[in-house]
Amino acid sequence: MRDDGQPMTAAFSNVIVLLPLVYLVLSIAAILSRKNSLLKSLASHGKTRQMSSWSLVDFEVPKQFFTHFYIVGQCSAIGIFYLAGEVPFLSTSQWLLFIHLCRRTYECWYVHRFLSQSKMHFLGYLLGIGHYTILPLVFVGRTSQSVPLTIHALCCAVNLWLQYEQYMHHKILAALRPFDHQQHSEAYRIPPRHRWFQWSLSPHYLAEILLYASWAVMLSFQPARPLDWSWSGAFSAPLMRRIDLFARQRQWFLFFWVMTNLSVSALNNRDWYSKKRPELSR
After folding, report:
1. CA–CA gap between residue 223 and residue 77 (Å, rounded)
2. Is this prediction's pTM over 0.85?
């Protein structure tokens, strides 16, 4: 990983500076989707898929296209890390990101059982592609300032443990699907009270939220390299300092977006399960 203290290039800086705003807007949209039928239709997928009266929402793609998200994420990470001059000396957080993307690709291929009727909206698909395209920008441009070994080891161990837990809960969920992918989704069963299902109806979402929290903590101990502000002459110095502060803390805006998005998905799951088993609503 580069540690020369040189500013990020203008091309990277111009994109990175927008990340906090992008994640904040997406977070607000995710929260509003609980009440807005159009946003809810765009965000829903699989068994919780809800159609809208808007004709635009009729454009759907198979949910198994989720695989594309993680393949795009891997390609984007390789390209961004290479252009930023950080290959092959990647940080631990960057390697953990690669592990996550490769694991999710494996799960989509060999663990998940996508029903033929399982769909998602095309705009939701594009949002997923966009998310994983810009995701590596949160991990790029970090100095290798000394991190306390205990904190580094703890964050790394927690991250890997959460990835393992998410994998195990995906296996439990996959076992609830029929082997015949042509069967209707009504064959889907209520998860047993194993592992985190004792406390949560969507532990796979909970594990991913905590996973991004662990990345946010790790990146907070790796100060971001300065951005190139050569284009900022028309803006006041106090404004640029605030923008720079937000850009340096972009990992927390990413975490807030993931937390709100997956929390809304978990609430939609709860609503679906409650229709199958009313006692689960509590």
Report:
1. 19
2. yes
